[in-house]
Amino acid sequence: MNLVVVVLLCALIQFLGLDAVYVDIRGYRGYIQRTHNNLRALEGAADMKFLTVDRQLEMLSQNWADRCMFEHQMRGYGENLAFISSTGPTPDPGYVIRESIRQWYNERPLYRFGRGSCGAACHYTQMIWARTSRIGCAMSYCDSLFDGRGRVYRNAQYFVCFYSPQGNFIGQTPYTPGPACSRCPAGNSCTREGLCYGPDFMGRRRRRSVAATYKSTMTKSLE
Asked: Cα-atom radius of gyration of the chain, to the nearest Å?
């Protein structure tokens, strides 16, 4: 019985975010935005939106990271989650960001264009979903990070990115292939990267998303 009480107490503490320490990654905003847009520009899409940083999404991402729970909120945003847990020194935030984005994008070979779902490449497809136009990321240091399945990771840097509008809709492909900016929404201009910049897509009713959120686990010893 005492063990059950301890476990429940630990879970409550994590839920309240009492184990989280804010990690300031505002200096990496430009890197996160630029890297996403550069990768999006490589796809050969006719309708790929330019990603802008959204402060509201950053706040929501921070609130989620502060929970120190490696799980999804399922609230209508696209989500890519990752963490690095170390038995040695605390992982550097810049390294966590670079490695997270790299591993998400490295799912690219697992995706077959035209399939009805993102399969095993859902981080990648959210990153390059054409209609997604806003991103906000945040990080928390978690002395103990819970994964919702009874596992606990110590000394973890927890990186959260929210995307809007969300992607990975069942029956839809991430983008329309074609010359850059040839299928931009009305009122959009074309950036130097070949991405559509301006008002979001309007009109089409959204289908159910295969999953609003995806996560990855990176537990590396940095000793």
From this structure: 18
pTM to 2 decimals?
0.83
The whole-angstrom separation of Cα 124 and Cα 23 is: 25
| Domain assignment present for 145 | yes
Residues 92, 98, 104: CA angle, nearest 5 degrees = 130
User: Does residue 91 have a cis bond before it (omega within 30 degrees)?
Assistant: no
The count of structural domains within the chain is: 1
What digits encode the pLDDT tens for the residues 68-109? 999 987 778 999 999 999 888 888 999 999 999 999 999 999
Tens digits of residue pLDDT in 177-189: 999 999 999 999 9
Is 34 inside a domain boundary? yes
The Cα 83–Cα 114 span in angstroms is 30
Instruction: Indicate whether 170 belongs to any domain.
Output: yes
Dist. CA 76–CA 167, nearest whole Å: 10
Full residue range of the structural domain in which residue 79 is found: 18-219
CA 55 from chain centre, in angstroms, equals 15
Residue 138 bridge partners (DSSP): 160
Domain CATH for 102: 3.40.33.10
pLDDT at 211: 39
Residue 207 has pLDDT above 90, yes or no: no
Residue 1 belongs to some domain of the structure: no
Contacting residues for 91 by C-beta, under 8 A, at least 6 apart: 84, 157, 220, 222
